[in-house]
Amino acid sequence: MQKSTESFFDEMQLDAVDLDESRVRQIYSAYQNWLKDIPHHQLESKRQEAELLFRRVGITFNVYGEEDGAERLIPFDVIPRIISANEWEKLSAGAIQRVKALNMFLHDIYHQQEIIQAGIIPSSILANSQYRPEMVGVDVPRQIYAHVAGIDLVRTSESQFYVLEDNLRTPSGVSYMLEDRKMMMRLFPDLFRRYSVAPVDHYPQVLLKNLRAVAQTNSQEPTVVLLSPGAYNSAYFEHAFLAQQMGIELVEGTDLFVRNNAVYMRTTQGPQRVDVIYRRIDDDYIDPLVFNPNSMLGVPGLLSVYRNGGVTLANAVGTGVADDKATYIYVPEMIKFYLNEEPLLENVPTYELSKEEDLQYTLAHLHELVVKEVQGSGGYGMLVGPAATKKEIEEFRLRIVSKPANYIAQPTLALSTCPTLVEAGIAPRHVDLRPFVLSGKTVTLVPGALCRVALKAGSLVVNSSQGGGTKDTWVLEAEVLEDTQGSETSRETKQATTIKTKQKAKQKIAEPAC
Amino acid sequence: MLSRTADHLYWMARYIERAENMARVLEVTYSMSLVPNAAQSEAALWLPALEIAGNVDLYEEEYGSVDAANVIHYLSMDVNNPSSIYNALRNARENARAVRVDMTSETWENINALWLEFDQFRGADLSKTGLREFCDWVKARSHLFRGVCFGTMLRDDAFSFVRLGTFIERADNTARLLDVKYHLLLPDEEEVGGAVDYYEWSAVLRSVSAFQAYQKIFSDTIEPWRVAELLVLRRDMPRSLHACLDEITPILEQLSGRRQVECRRLAGELHAKLRYGKMQDIFQRGLHEFLSDFIDSNNLLGAEIQRAFLSINAS
Predict the structure, then answer these.
(1) Which tens digits make up the pLDDT trace of B15-41?
(2) Residue of chain B whose Cα is closest to the Cα of A243
(3) How distant is the Cα of B315 from the closest Cα of chain A, in angstroms?
(4) Do A197 and A59 fall within a single domain?
(5) What range does the domain containing B177 cover?
(6) Could you tell me which of B180, B161, B166, B174 has the C-alpha nearest to residue B254?
């Protein structure tokens, strides 16, 4: 087994000696003991089994621009990322706080614009291409814009987490949170006896409840549908999966039409009214009459019905202005302004290259910074200074100089690593974390997250489009762990603890979180 | 349910059925080619298989002359032949993938597994070896598909559209098979009864899993008109035209409810012909005429089903 790199915080190991000998963080001690017990090749054979099962179930994604049949698996790592109950409590409180503020900001920016008047955010934000003038003055149910938000978190030390970005448009990846868990329970049932891992399976039910809660028409028995770009979209599996789990229709643009200020779907028994659309199509493609006229994916006239309250869209149109990298800088200020609270989660210090001073600093330190395009996503259009060649840096320099306002820069974060099964054995790889915050009647999140892992040694880019993989994330329900592989007594104690904390968890769900 | 969903389910089932029938035709022609038969050339033996598949022109364009190796490749693996087993299975899986939500996960995984398994046959030269195994595999997967639908799907509209697809396609295939074979096998003067003839007709029966049924029902030598009767009018013979319409008619009744749709009337009419028709009358008019009429009506029925339920513009 390989050593962990000294300069990075590791989720499991406390020191950089062989994993077998290393002292590990307390939450991983039961895992380390288990690892010592199992036959050498078991992890690898379990990994292969997982791959086979994922293929069989068809949990694949399409790669843009490749011949059909090129369906790929997102690599799945069999070693879990474990998060303690205490850590989770802090993270989830911080993420909820953030999403509340972002929703208030979105309402404000499309109504009174108080935050601009207060001088906290410059009015230049109204010129952002993600700002949708069509949404000005439109009232959305419960003033919720981002019904589903993915908050990307990274860790740099035992106590330090940063928010890397907020995803408020059509965040994806939650199906991997759910499927990875199912897979882990299937592959390693014995591990789930050693750990009380908080369940995540109820995510689709919470989401459905929230979607029904934002219906403006037929609010007793609203018809909710999931609008997908179709089977050739890279996230199609997730769309199908969520629709199935929620028991709602998976529709495409051509299945819907607009008549008399209402949206209908074409069924074998004639038209049926739709009340809430959980849409996984970007703003630009959702209505060819208003946005991209060449879009074949959307529904002509949808926006007009939406603006008149004839249907609810989740997420709302126009959320992109709040997760833009240029807006990100102001989120801590938003939290203070709208909630009168101190931010629980920190932003990564960010240089705005539209500011001369920041630009000069950045240009002088390109080799140590990460530079990102303001509206970029998916890990395209970014420069990771320490990993880039001289030539790449110089090319990027030219791009920055020609349009500085398009870029922001951040210090290269020492992303934490987590032991990961690679060809050579177990080795540390960098990870991030995306919990999903759901807003409806309440603002909540299920105790789990998408954990992405950069499979290339040393790489800091975790995006699946750039060869990243996923891990199951275990949020523990109890702090008390079985430290050896368990006499009967310790198992009983553990069960008792589990029951107690489960009751606690139930209470938590019952209380509105906002 | 969504019209588009119904459309995908219907075509998924049709394509699976098409693959199965194509495998049956291939298998039977292949076993015929093993019977010593000086009278027939390789081309004469394999041409009917092409005629049943209905794409003779496309074949001639691509390959020119008719021989075993080319026909086998064309009907099983050819990417350019829209009715090849490869394309039928691929289309079935693509349709399934588009509506995986609307079937049970067992059904979806079954079709997905079928497609993954198909890889083992890719690139193999089936005319040299392994054709039997391939055809057996296709048939077995098709049986499995029907079984998993029957055993796991809720008896709702989704299930009805799957069944509908299966039987519309099957009726078409049985009619084509019988038409081509009858045309070809029945000599001008009624000189039936030779050994080759016996093999020919028993092969036709085997291709629709009806050989044992024939023996059981008639316990007699194989006579062409009885084969025709078995495959047209016998309702207890699961691949006969009558049996297919026995399935289709009530499904359309139930799907259309109070709606007056043309496909319902058409199915009723077709059903009545098979239910109350007599073999004697059919032969008097000519079996070939009867079968081509049937194939046309069945196609029309398919188009009307499309129009009433499946078309994206049906609103």
Answers:
(1) 999 999 999 989 888 887 887 764 578
(2) B101
(3) 5
(4) yes
(5) 155-315
(6) B161
**What is the reported pTM?**
0.82
Residues of chain B with pLDDT under 50: 38, 189-193, 314-315
Say if residue B186 is in the same domain as residue B292.
Answer: yes
| Same domain for A354 and A464 | no
| Collapsed DSSP state (helix, strand, coil) of residue A365 | coil
Range(s) of the domain holding residue A399: 349-412
Question: Chain A within 8 Å of B108 (Cβ-Cβ)?
Answer: yes
Q: Give me the pLDDT at residue A49, please.
A: 94
The ipTM estimated for the assembled molecules is 0.71
Best residue in B101, B108, B110, B313 for a mutation probing chain A (most A CBs within 10 Å):
B101
Whether residues A338 and A463 fall in one domain: yes
Residues A91 and A188 occupy one common structural domain:
yes
Within a domain: residue A66? yes
Residues of A with CB under 8 A from a CB of B: 55-58, 230-231, 240, 243-244, 249-252, 254-255, 257, 264-271
A482, A494 Cβ separation under 8 angstroms: yes
| pLDDT per position as a tens digit, A382-430 | 888 888 889 999 998 998 998 888 888 999 888 999 999 998 889 999 9
Residue A148 corresponds to which amino acid?
V
How many domains would you assign to chain A?
2
Who among A240, A251, A255 is closest to B100 (CB)? Answer: A240
Question: Which of A412, A444, A465 delimits the end of a domain?
Answer: A412
Q: Are residues B119 and B232 in the same domain?
A: no
Q: Where are the alpha helices (DSSP H) in A196-324?
A: 203-213, 236-246, 283-286, 302-307, 320-323
Query: Is position A112 within any domain?
Result: yes
Q: Helix (H, G, I), strand (E, B), or coil: what is residue B224?
A: helix
Would an 8 Å CB–CB cutoff place B314 in contact with chain A?
Answer: yes
Tokens of A378: 């998916």
> By the 8 A CB rule, do A139 and A216 touch?
no
CA distance B311 to chain A (A): 9
Report pLDDT for B70.
93
